[in-house]
């Protein structure tokens, strides 16, 4: 179990109200909202959706064995165009 610590912030009243409103809308505490914002900021390259969220469900539709780590969109596009059209045609996608 993680140990929680208290952090006091000095922010404008309007931000305090907005944070409370957003947290209430999401069904979480303001503390959890701040934690999520920090995680998003640090891990902006990697998407880590909340379990049960729509994004989480969508991301888990693809089995782990079929997920690609080094997906090359341009290469995939070239292959798809070659299959769809005459493979002797030269497609310049750049």
Structural write-up:
- This protein has 94 residues and is mainly alpha-helical.
- The protein has four helices and no strands.
- It has helices at 13-26, 30-42, 54-59, 73-84.
- It is elongated, with a radius of gyration of 22 Å.
- The N and C termini lie far apart (50 Å).
- 0% of the residues are buried.
Element layout with pairings:
Elements: H1 13-26, H2 30-42, H3 54-59, H4 73-84
Provide the descriptors you would attach to this structure in a database record.
94 residues; mainly alpha; 4 helices; 0% strand
Summarize the structure.
The protein has 94 residues and is an all-alpha fold.
What proportion strand? under 5%
Rounded mean pLDDT score? 81
Secondary-structure-based class equals: mainly alpha
Give the end-to-end Cα distance, rounded to a whole number of Å.
Answer: 50 Å
Number of helices: 4
Give the helices and strands as they follow along the chain: HHHH
Query: Residue ranges: pLDDT <50 for 5 or more in a row?
Result: none
Can you count the beta strands?
Answer: 0
Main beta sheet, described? none
